[in-house]
Amino acid sequence: MGLADKAKNKAEELAGKAKSGVGDATDNRDLQAEGQADQAGANTKQAGEHAKDAAADVKDAFKSK
Fold it and tell me: Is the overall model pTM greater than 0.85, yes or no?
């Protein structure tokens, strides 16, 4: 999909990693879990973007035949 969406998802993933790392370093299990949840959400969004891209590629391949 859009480059902006992909960048936003990657930024969300990195923020989640940072939050999880801070939670781990400070022994804050809630913050660590929240960071992991943020990462999982971003990864799910990224997978959706990849699926959209793949569908568009297949559609384009059939158009060119």
Answer: no
- 12-51 pLDDT, tens digit per residue, is 999 999 999 999 999 999 999 999 999 999 999 999 888 9
Nearest to 8 by CA among 52, 38, 34: 38
The one-letter amino acid code at 53 reads D
48 CB neighbour count, 10 Å cutoff: 13
> How far is Cα 46 from Cα 56, in angstroms, rounded to an integer?
15
Q: Where are the domains of the chain?
A: 3-63
**Residue 5 CA to its chain's centroid (Å):** 10
- Cα of first residue to Cα of last residue in the chain, in angstroms, is 23
Rounded CA Rg of the chain: 16
